[in-house]
Automatic annotation (TrEMBL):
It comes from the Eukaryota. Its EC number is 4.1.1.97. InterPro entries: OHCU_decarboxylase, OHCU_decarboxylase_sf. This is 2-oxo-4-hydroxy-4-carboxy-5-ureidoimidazoline decarboxylase. GO terms for molecular function: 2-oxo-4-hydroxy-4-carboxy-5-ureidoimidazoline decarboxylase activity. Keywords: Decarboxylase, Lyase, Purine metabolism. GO terms for cellular component: peroxisome. SUPFAM superfamilies: UraD-Like.
Length: 131
């Protein structure tokens, strides 16, 4: 099926049923988002359409957002893995003392990483940072 490019005026003037068919999968598996942004017409440009989707999604309750995420089981699994990974990083930082680094320490590590193009890691104990 060839792609048809619509002007913003055409987007604003198409009947709701066609609008929902065209934009119903912007939030995949969730045509309610397209229905929800109909009230924001007329749009001035494509950016307005994006803003309308963001407003619609921002106004959803936490439960409604969770329901949308449930439509993506792979994404939910990836988010769970990321959450576990972040927990491990926080534990590592506490154990290594990295959570006690000053802003200056972090900046120095950043400069070393940039200069030598290898990661520099600072290890310390809580007692070292207290002195």
């Amino acid at each position: 099926m060839p792609m048809t490019i619509l002007t913003i005026q055409e987007v604003n003037n198409i009947i709701s049923e066609h609008f929902i068919k065209i934009f119903g999968n912007v939030v995949e598996h969730y045509p309610a988002a397209a229905i929800g942004i109909l009230r924001y017409r007329p749009f001035k440009n494509a950016g307005d359409i994006s803003v309308a989707f963001n407003k619609f999604l921002d106004k959803l309750s936490l439960r409604e957002k969770q329901n949308i995420l449930q439509l993506y089981p792979d994404l939910v699994a990836k988010l769970a893995d990321l959450s576990k990974f972040m927990l491990h990083i926080e534990q590592y930082q506490r154990i290594s003392g990295a959570d006690l680094l000053t802003i200056e320490d972090k900046q120095k590590l950043g400069q070393l990483n940039k200069r030598y193009k290898i990661p520099h890691i600072a290890f310390s104990t809580a007692s070292e940072k207290k002195h």
